[in-house]
Amino acid sequence: MSDRICVGVIGGAFGVHGEARIKSFTAEPEAIADYAPLESEDGARSFELQITRPVKQGFAARLSGVRSKEDADALKGARLYVPRDRLPQLPDDEFYHADLIGLEVYDTGGVVLGRIKAVLNHGATDLLEVGRPGGSQTALLPFTREAVPTVDLTAGRIVADPPEGIFD
Predict the structure, then answer these.
(1) Residue-wise over 6-31: b if at least 16 C-beta within 10 A, else e?
(2) Tally of domains in the chain
């Protein structure tokens, strides 16, 4: 498990006065500000964050050290991280995406189906992108209790009972 968790990404400038567009990955999107200071992926920069208003697919925010539109645009795509210990403990049936990425996926008969490459959400439910062994093909597995009855972070694996046709 990673000692830092990605909680958001900078989408570039919002307006001309140094505000940045922030997309939050936290369960309560506006709570991203509560975890500040936020760090860049390499840990070289640290930002205080003040949300100024909601905007389409995120927030407009002021970041410490960002004073102009050009400063904000230069940070476009930068992921924002916090130390894991600053985040709340999750109930047993909830997981941070960072904890799922890299886990091996087995079917209910113990056959390896692949390894989780990413956790995606396009609205209805989370999808696990599973890289298939021995190739570049992936499969999208719904992250529901029916399709993924067991997540064992300690063993580094999940057991899946995928819907028909996903891993054919």
Answers:
(1) bbbbbbebbeeebbbbbbbbbeebee
(2) 2
